[in-house]
Amino acid sequence: MRLECVFAALCLGVGVMAGKYSREVNEAKPSGSDGQPVEFRIAKLNQVWEKAKRMQLSPVRQAELHSDLKIQEKDELQWKKMKVEGLDENGEKEAQLRRNFNVILAKYGMDGKRDTRPRESNSLKDHDIKEGDVFDDPRLDKLWNKAKNSGKFSTEELLNLKREFQHHKDKIHEYNILMDTVSRTEEIHKNVISDLEGDAKEHLLQQKHTELKDKMRGLNQGFERLRKISHEGFTDDSEFREPRVIELWEAAKRSNLSRDELDSLKEELCHFETKVEKHSHYQEQLELSHQKLQHVESLGDKEHIRRTQEKYDNLAEKTRDMGYKMKKHMQDLANKISRQGLQHNEL
């Protein structure tokens, strides 16, 4: 009996060690040629990340870049599997991935072109409405000034509206980046599909410009929403507060989903909005933590610096991880809405 107990304990110990070893292997970060751990499994993404760490990006912007690179990594690894299985014969997915990567480079000023946008500060802009705030677009500025001076909005509503205006400004910037990227990489894409014939080649060329048209349509619809709210104020049945969630909900209502499908999606979007708000809170805490770290570093107490740096690093990692999960969830929701809408339209 005692021998059986010892044997069982040994098996359990080996099992635990094996499980622990497997987890450590699976969760360990890949290593570069110098043996040091790297962030990503794709070399070019690591090169971008290393360059970003040398740039003067704000902590939040660096965390956003990390999330975008994680999404790009996930998509590229999926594509490599597709390619092995022969599922991207016309190179359409490969061309889209290259375009997405170029958009990331341009978005964070890493494409070799001068970024003309003003430098970001560590101030928490959403909590402070100033007279001089502008959105670099005459139409947006005019609408914003009208809404701000109309007396129709409470302080909280004005903050929510400002987030929508800022989101729309960011969407315009992303559209301009995409348009520029498509134009500058046209020859590369033509080379990718140079061996294709007739309809396949034409389809790939149209696909890029269809994406631009879809984004422009989204911009026009977003501006119309801002115009309506600025004139009429928020309605009592406004379902959501976060601009990205509002955008998904508006797209869902245009996609010919059934009432039951819309109700189900609305509930999922409520959970997603909570995730977005939590991520925004972590971004704010990350900025504050960075400010505290800078203050502590100026004092010169090494032990205090070490503890503060450790807290900042942990918070930065949580913010990056949360940002990736939030963006992946948003990507999944957008794909779900697009697929379901297409299925309905085809019927």
TrEMBL record:
Protein's name according to its UniProt entry: Alpha-2-macroglobulin receptor-associated protein-like
Annotated ranges, domain Alpha-2-macroglobulin receptor-associated protein: 6-115
Keyword set, alphabetical order: Signal
Gene that this polypeptide is encoded by: LOC115390961
BP-aspect Gene Ontology terms: negative regulation of receptor internalization; negative regulation of very-low-density lipoprotein particle clearance
Signal peptide: 1-18
Any GO molecular function: very-low-density lipoprotein particle receptor binding
Superkingdom of origin: Eukaryota
Domain Alpha-2-macroglobulin RAP C-terminal: 134-347
InterPro entries associated with the record: A2-macroglobuin_RAP, Alpha_2_MRAP_C, MG_RAP_rcpt_1, RAP_D2, RAP_D3, RAP_sf
A single cellular component GO annotation: endosome
Cited Pfam families: Alpha-2-MRAP_C, Alpha-2-MRAP_N
